[in-house]
Amino acid sequence: MNNPLNNTGLVFSLLLVPEFFAATVCAQQNTTGHANDFSSVEYFEPPHQQQMESRLSGAEARPEPGGMLVIQQLRLETFDTNGAPGLIVKAPHCVYDVVHGVASSPGHLRLETADGSSHVEGDGFLWLQANQKLYISNNVQSAIEAEPKKKTGL
Amino acid sequence: MAWLILAGGGCLQAQTNALPAPARTQTRIDSESAVFDLTSRHAIYRGNVRVDDPKIKLSCEELTADLPQSGGHVDHLVALTNVVMDSVDDKGQTTHATSDKAIYDYKVVNGVTNEPITLTGNAKVENAQVILTGEPIIYNRATGSLTATNQHMIFKQNLASALASTNLPVENLPVEKTNFPPVATPGVDKSSINQPPP
After folding, report:
1. Nearest by CB to B36, which of A111, A114, A117?
2. Is residue B71 in some structural domain?
3. Which residue range is the domain that position B99 belongs to?
4. Which of A14, A93, B90, B107 is the most buried (most CB within 10 A)?
5. What pTM value is reported for the model?
6. Following DSSP, what letter does each residue of A114-147 receive, concatenated?
7. Which residues of chain B have pLDDT under 50?
8. What is the tens place of the pLDDT at every residue in B80-135?
């Protein structure tokens, strides 16, 4: 997993700007050169190569020079090798380096377990796609519940 | 967390809380920065780390933890550098503990819960009655038991006075019933027993 592009379905279901990516369009484009509902998927190494390891998505992605994407409403999800959801990272915005698989932002971030029972918040982050490490640089606040939240069925 | 040494009017024995734990089950961990491995859920908190648990408050410079699966129990914590723990039991007795390192583990084996906290490096536990040092000091949060190796205990108040406020007969001196028999243990500073604190 040294090269973040190896397993990356940088098959961006995205579909940014046509002149940048001539991929299948799964997101809505507009005339200003950015795309809506973008996502990028990374898969596990064999033997779990069919399973998603992480999925990076955003409500909007705007390409910047140098292979950067400015993403609004970032959502990063991780999965176990059995497909079960793991952790979810949410941020209002970030810059994603497509080539190196690095996302960062000086802004706020929220990390939570898939069942919502525990969460971490902080300001300023760096995510390395290659090793799935997330660095939060300031004001880290975690809350861990001893028991999972009851589902209300509502 | 019920560090209860010499509580109950002179009973030199760690006791667990008699009442059920508070309903609150959330543990808060705050720090200046942190690193999370999103695959293994391993977290390292750094800088002015503060843990606020229903039973204990802890501060240190670095704390490693594994985020639980699906809201399960945190099963392993390692606190490093200037570790300070404070707790208040159901009777309102406060206990203060310090060390260079503290390791907390949570395991359930055959239905039995074990929650040992191992203090090492200048480990010291103190409450209103005694000051205990040892290397290591191990407190089992699940059972309330407290053990120490190479222990050294200092009573802050006269033991007879402490017993006078209880129904314990003199022959039941608590020091003979605990893990800390100062008379039989090498290295114990006997002169410090029954002496007021410095």
Report:
1. A111
2. yes
3. 2-8+25-159
4. A14
5. 0.73
6. TTSSEEEEEEEEEEETTTTEEEEEEEEEEEEESS
7. 1-22, 24, 165-194
8. 999 999 987 767 778 899 999 999 998 888 888 888 899 999 999 988 888 889 99
Q: In a mutagenesis test of the B interface, which of A89, A118, A121 is the best target, namely the one with the most B β-carbons within 10 Å? A: A118
The minimal CB distance from B71 to the residues A133, A136, A147 is found for: A147
Cα A131 to Cα A138: distance, rounded to the nearest angstrom: 21
DSSP A29-76: B-TTS-EEEEEEEEEPPTTSTTSEEEEEEEEEEEEETTTEEEEEEEEE
Determine whether the interchain pair B37/A132 forms a contact, defined as Cβ–Cβ distance below 8 Å: yes
Q: Which CATH code for domain A10-144?
A: 2.60.450.10
pLDDT in tens, A6-17: 444 443 444 343
- Tell me whether residue B127 is in a domain: yes
Listed by number, the residues of chain A in 33-92 with a beta carbon closer than 8 Å to a beta carbon of chain B are 53-54, 78, 86-87, 89
User: Where residue B123 sits, what CATH number does that domain have?
Assistant: 2.60.450.10
For chain A, give every domain's residue range: 10-144
Total structural domains within chain B: 1
Chain B positions touching A135 (Cβ under 8 A) are 33-35
With CB atoms and an 8 Å threshold, state whether B39 touches A148: no
**ipTM of predicted complex:** 0.77
Residue B97 belongs to a domain: yes
